[in-house]
Amino acid sequence: MFEDEVTETEEEIMTEELTDLAFGMFTIFMEQQLEKEQTCLYREVEAGADLTDRCASCLPVFEDAYPPLVPALSSLGTAADIAGLYAAGEGIVPTKTTRSYWIQQDRPGVATGVSGAEEAGKWLIFLLPEDVDAAWQKVRNAMVLGTLGIGAKVSTAKENEDSRDERKVIYVFTENWADEADVMRVREELKQLGFVDRIGYKRNLDTYAGEYREKGKRVTYYSV
Fold it and tell me: Would you indicate the residue range of the signal peptide (predicted)?
């Protein structure tokens, strides 16, 4: 009996994770469609737009591209139900997002995945939960305007066992860690947005090599 209960619990967790993955992938589809219309998801949500029709038009495209994820996405309900999740802040507001560990905002026109390249790097801004929503709004808006780097992402309210404390973090990516002029230009832009305390910059290649903060070990490449 106990083994059966454990199995059922594991299946529930797997089902929930698959649903969250499906929602995340669908959100990418939505963002791509809205970018063609020279807008973005957060702008539509914050303007109070009803996204039901847009969700409905994206669903067939998503279903053709990712058939295995269709049942998982369907578990969230209709296009109107998915639109309701966005309206409630899911995928938009860090403290109201529980289906994804991260919210990401790329600079318009930047190819998907560029922020994850080994030659890229990111400024790290650590924040208390009560400060993260306003801070993310500043970074996100500047990213869409094209004044920062190539992309940014922020940790959310979804419980993450890898978190070391209650703080949230915003990553602001630049295309090449070796381009110090561009890296520092982005740092100056962040200061203009109000992030004046010293922050560190980490190369993606160090992250992929498993270089994390340890006592007496320097893992940030720049610190300004």
Answer: none
